[in-house]
Amino acid sequence: MAEAEEQETGSLEESTDESEEEESEEEPKLKYERLSNGVTEILQKDAASCMTVHDKFLALGTHYGKVYLLDVQGNITQKFDISPVKINQISLDESGEHMGVCSEDGKVQVFGLYSGEEFHETFDCPIKIIAVHPHFVRSSCKQFVTGGKKLLLFERSWMSRWKSSVLHEGEGNIRSVKWRGHLIAWANNMGVKIFDIASKQRITNVPRDDISLRPDMYPCSLCWQDNVTLIIGWGTSVKICSVKERHASEMRDLPSRYVEIVSQFETEFYISGLAPLCDQLVVLSYVKEVSEKTEREYCARPRLDIIQPLSETCEEISSDALTVRGFQENECRDYHLEYSEGESLFYIVSPRDVVVAKERDQDDHIDWLLEKKKYEEALMAAEISQKNIKRHKILDIGLAYINHLVEKGEYDIAARKCQKILGKNAALWEYEVYKFKEIGQLKAISPYLPRGDPVLKPLIYEMILHEFLESDYEGFATLIREWPGDLYNNSVIVQAVRDHLKKDSQNRTLLKTLAELYTYDKNYGNALEIYLTLRHKDVFQLIHKHNLFSSIKDKIVLLMDFDSEKAVDMLLDNEDKISITKVVEELEDRPELQHVYLHKLFKRDHHKGQRYHEKQISLYAEFDRPNLLPFLRDSIHCPLEKALEICQQRNFVEETVYLLSRMGNSRSALKMIMEELHDVDKAIEFAKEQDDGELWEDLILYSIDKPPFITGLLNNIGTHVDPILLIHRIKEGMEIPNLRDSLVKILQDYNLQILLREGCKKILVADSLSLLKKMHRTQMKGILVDEENICESCLSPILPSDTAKPFSAVVFHCRHMFHKECLPMTSMNSPVQFCNICSAKHRGPGSAMLEMKK
């Protein structure tokens, strides 16, 4: 049976409960592997009975009384023959330099692994437990405890002699002990005790709950979570105890410390071992199940659970069933759980197997995600932790993800992921493109191919273009538009398109694409020809961009037929390249297009096309009469006689009226309005524009026998002609529509005129008064006379050189100055004297004199 079991899979992950792994989507917290190498050799001939763990090495005891020191890979480094019978327990101090061993035959040994100091003693009963002081390496801490029927404390005295003292007895065999700091915890048949080595006091007794279980078959499991927290597992019960300091006021005869149970709960299975994991617990459980066939109990795989303790219950974080060798024959007492605090390593020890459990790292997390085919999450995890992962590469995970998507048929997503995963690796891009070609999905990857950095081989792009050309013309055209022309061999693709056009010569998509390819190839002539054939909007952009005006001189009609608005704008913007004369000649056979061109030209500049204004009269009359009258008004180059002739031939009344008035024949124009249009309002408007009394007379004479016309005149004539002239001519008894309203309006208009005149008069008087006052203030101001001023008559200085002599000067308000003797004598009829200079021009304010005498 042993040989058969050894042929099982070496990896314990594969040997966990497969049905549970398949059903659960939760990631395990731990990973497992067997401790092999030397351990395998040992357990082939012997069986493990106990084990202890140090950060640097392991110590394994066997049923044949051997103790092996192992490295963390399980290789044997040292071997000790302690006893011919079972090793019950091994204890190491924190330094790993001293080891204590006890065996079933009562032997106890404590010795230094690297020194000669030793303790040997053989008792008359089996010694089940041993624990050396955590700091045994110190001379002040040379202490250890052993347990059989009683718990003994051994201490080395100052003379290097060992003395023993009984800490406890009388409650059955001591079966478990753990020493942490100054506290020793042990378990016997009745419960768990804690002893304070510093105060030499026992501080608590925690009784066991299920006394029906045999303590030798279901031993107690103890572990210290920290220096003051003890975890007790016994049967199916777990208690977490906290050692606390007692308040001085409560001491009396009590110990200085006491224990409080902070959490207590039951588990589903029997506990074989405990270990702390941060604020959680790792529990090794012995499992018994009932066979459905025989209804008998049998030993199932042991379980390693991670639980979160609560005050009265617990929450299961993870649970793994382990297939250890010989689990069918093991009892609860055969399993042990040891742990390394520094590295969070957990060792599951059974007689024929040692399994190591360790926390899963990021590589293990990625392994699990890949196993569950959660590739996207695996890729994200690898990117986040790329500095910490050792066994995985982001690129390998990405490639596996792409393959997975392809296998699922999600080709578009796979192609999209290539952008991120393949990055700038041209070789991988080309490999993936060929892979997509093999499965017939080149179209899926085409939108995501790199187009700049990196650039793939031209053959790759040509292969995809040929694929589209065979099955999807629109997709082919899209790629040609989006891809730069230097990615592929343009001539090869041009030839392929031409071959397809032989089968479908009128396919607009292919023709347009061919034009774009010609453009990339700078074959603008062929591209322009195709665009014109297709009447494509890009033709104008192509002409502008590549200056193809010399190529379109004979294609002006085609351009105008396609889009006359854009064509005319382009031609007018580039007159220096295609002259107006050339355009008009090309459009000679298409007068409607000729008109569009000349009309736009006239709008831009009234003089540039003056030689064609005579022609435009006929074109406007034929194709655009609404713009004929504005043209006639704005043009100063069109022959009026020719225009009048055309308008009279076509009976264009409004245009004829305008031409007649412009040629000075206002009376004929007015007559035409009255006789042809019968529009009194227009006639009145025309008469107002001309402002000619004879026209008003003609209008009155024509309207005097037409009541509606009289109404119109009465309503509008008041401000231009005296309405009395019209009213006197109205025949008595003539019925005139709305006469009363018209007369009222005339009176209102008259009153309004009177009011306006009065208002204007008031404003004028006020302004005159204001200006008069201003002139008076100005004239009252003094005028400076100095040596620079001269007499305007004799041109000598106005002031004499000797100012002591008397002199007379005349200064006018216009600032002209004269010696008094230089002025002519005033007449008796007009005593006011005026400036000779200003009065010669005109007489006005400011020319009167201001006489200055001294």
From TrEMBL:
A GO cellular component entry from the record: AP-3 adaptor complex
Region entry Disordered, spans: 1-33
Subcellular location field: Cytoplasm, Cytosol; Early endosome membrane; Endosome membrane; Late endosome membrane
Keywords carried by this UniProt record: Autophagy, Cytoplasm, Cytoplasmic vesicle, Endosome, Golgi apparatus, Lysosome, Membrane, Metal-binding, Protein transport, Transport, Zinc, Zinc-finger
A GO MF label: identical protein binding
Membrane topology per record: Peripheral membrane protein
GO terms of biological process kind: cellular response to starvation; endosomal vesicle fusion; endosome to lysosome transport; late endosome to lysosome transport; macroautophagy; protein targeting to vacuole
All copies of domain RING-type, residue ranges: 791-839
CHCR repeat intervals: 568-712
Residue ranges, compositional bias (Acidic residues): 14-26
Major location category of this protein: cytoplasm
Top-rank lineage group of the source organism: Eukaryota
Biological role stated in the UniProt entry: Plays a role in vesicle-mediated protein trafficking to lysosomal compartments including the endocytic membrane transport pathways.
Protein family per UniProt: Belongs to the VPS41 family.
Protein name, UniProt field: Vacuolar protein sorting-associated protein 41 homolog
Species this protein is from: Balaenoptera musculus (Blue whale)
Recorded name of the encoding gene: VPS41
